[in-house]
Amino acid sequence: MSLASAVSAGDINPHISDSLESAYSPSGHLNLLADDSSIESLDVDGNGEYDALTDGLLVLRGLFGLTGSALVSNAVALDAQYTNAADIQARIESLMDVVDVDANGEADALTDGLIILRYLFGLRGDVLLSGVISDGAARDTALAVETYVQSLLPEIEDSSDVETIYVRLNDQPFAAPYYVFSSTENGAAQAVTLDKGASYKFVRTDSGHPFNIGSGWRESLSDFDMSSTSTDNLVSDIGSIEVGQSITLTIPIDFTGTAITYYCYVHSSMKATLNISDTTETPPINTSGAFELLGNTVTLEDYNPLSQTTISNQFELNFADGVASADLTSAPLNLANIKNGTSSPLGDYSDALLRFVLKDALPTGSGTGTVDLYVTTGSDGIRANNESQLHCQIQIAWSSDGVSASILEPPQNIILTVNRTGLMISTTINEFDIMTVAADELTGAKTLDIKLLSALSEGVRVAGDLLNSLLVPRKLHISVATTLLINDSNEAAVSEFDSVISLAN
Fold it and tell me: Domains of the chain by range and CATH?
């Protein structure tokens, strides 16, 4: 069965909905936006689109005389502005004077309704009119009918991202500022600055001294996308507006000017300017060649395997002589998590992180460097006779395009050295992961992350009980020294990060 026969007068079902939608694709779907105040528009449900299976079906049902749920069931778009039967019926009734498509003097479901439905399905030519033109039709050719139905589908701009500015005359129109602008109808006067890339709708709320916008008095803005609801006092097809009329314009993102002119079409003396600002988030450029810290705080992130939650705490950083330091002992690290990271097989584990927020502009380039990690029992970082210290040096390679960056530890043999009273042990580790640049998935904020206990976890795996003896409630001093270029927020070099942590059950 063809689409034409499916919507012919002989077998039409005014309740048609899901069955028709599943059988036919509405190739005539027009993604145009209709103003809900535009009564002579076939966007019956007010969702900003003309669609056969909603608007076309609603008109057809309305012409059949259906009301209530029989009128709207399965025929209202999910994003419709008008959804209840009473509103839909009122909107259809307001169309009765214009939906007499074949111009025979009456609006009829089996002629006019079917023509509208077929048109919205994309049918044109003879198949549009086959079997549905009344005997007394004055509009009986495909061209005439198509032209008329198209006139019921006005293309109205999407106003969702358009800022409305209300315009009225100054009490003394020949005295600057000539017109008054406000964000509400007849509201208090406001200074107006326009933004590049933005759209504005100037709505006139009074009459006299027709208002227009251009590059000068009666001079058009040729680089702008502009439209007007007025057809009077035209300047390059843009009508000058009075009460109830509007001018809509979009300022090009690459507009090089800093102002536009508004004026009275009648009086050349009544003109002034509106400033245009450039608000386009131009990407910042890194000129230091270093990863730059933003602010003076650090976040300690730890994991609790019992509750399976991540715990974050923020601390102030102290900067002195190229060292950024913080006392983190008020938020003890979870020993169960650390031990899970050293067990075999690996338990539920997530490495504790020091997270430093970076400025958005990253360096551009690539290079290599080193990271030295020192873990010392006690809180001052200096190993006393009865204390232990772990040390390793890792080679790193970094690359950055200014927007994103990576820090990798290429394949290498890492020597892990542990000094204890009367004992020193060295062991080789083949894998390591200590430092990375990350970006938050939601905010895009960039951070430099240092994994605090990577060396300790790796060391325990290869040195067994000796290093495992470190994993008891205590304080540890962790120092990360690097040749990677890092600056603080004041652009002073930072080459070392020191922190005092505590381990607790």
Answer: 3-151 (no CATH), 162-277 (2.60.40), 291-504 (no CATH)
